[in-house]
Amino acid sequence: MSDFTPTEMMTIAAARALTNDDVCFVGIGAPSAACNVARLTHAPDITLIYESGTVGTKPDVLPLSIGDGELCDTALFTVSVPEMFRYWLQGGRITTGFLGGAQIDKFANLNTTVVGPYDHPKVRLPGGGGAPEIASNCGQIFITMALSKRGFIEKLPFITSMGHGEGGNHRERLGMKTKGPTRVITDLCILEPDPITKELTVVSIHKGVTREQITENCGWTLKFADEVIETPVPTETELSVLRDINARTKKAHEAA
Ligand SMILES: CC(=O)SCCNC(=O)CCNC(=O)[C@H](O)C(C)(C)COP(=O)(O)OP(=O)(O)OC[C@H]1O[C@@H](n2cnc3c(N)ncnc32)[C@H](O)[C@@H]1OP(=O)(O)O
Ligand SMILES: O=C(O)/C=C/CC(=O)O
Questions:
Q1: What is the total count of domains within the chain?
Q2: Ligand 2 within 6 A of 132 CB?
Q3: Best label site of 23, 30, 89, 127, fewest CB within 10 Å?
Q4: Is 129 in the pocket of ligand 2 (CB under 6 A)?
Q5: In angstroms, what is the span from residue 114 Cα to ligand 2's centroid?
């Protein structure tokens, strides 16, 4: 097994969260890399769906956006965006949504809208897009983002996509029928919501990472589960699949 970067570990650990039977609504960016590594390794029959309506897509290179022709060219079929949302997503036909974000809080609520006050933003982010609907309508949500103090914060300035709200049974109280975020995969560790409080808790630590490093990079006092395992390191196959798709993507986008 060769050396690997924290980002590679994160992408591969995120890919492993998916199963062959999943129907997965894929977010652009880090989630898209993870979903395609899953498809190219342990989950060849996974159904990947992007918001542009592309169903069962098998991109050879990672898409720049949901509108990238690569998605439609390699899809089983493509439906209209209203059909994607109303029939597929709101119809409960999608098992898993995979999202990223700029900021997250301890109940896995996501901010992709604005950092700083809404009217006087420090950073204006891409916005919600389909993420709020994905977060509420997919059977469960996986989230992947690097652990950092600026990303993992105590109180979000803006909640774009609801995770577990104020914690506990908040989703249920609002009438939401889906599970919400069940796993957050970072470059240092994996977090899962506590079954009762729904507060994100460290369940797995990547090889070579210390508890201190994790604590130092989080904006709230992070809890650790009673049993914390070490994340299995990437296999040669996982690493070469990830590196190959990244290299193909870079070459394709440089040429475009
Ligand atoms: C189908 C779907 O895709 S769902 C549709 C909705 N879209 C999403 O949910 C997309 C979610 N993803 C995102 O918003 C983006 O990927 C981001 C903002 C999280 C990351 O953007 P990237 O360009 O990939 O990465 P990067 O980390 O370099 O951030 C770019 C800039 O955004 C800003 N930024 C990102 N995160 C933060 C943060 N937590 N605090 C302040 N600024 C931030 C910074 O200006 C940063 O530049 P810098 O690192 O030089 O300061
Ligand atoms: O509008 C959205 O929801 C998603 C946007 C992401 C993209 O344009 O690739």
A1: 1
A2: no
A3: 127
A4: yes
A5: 16
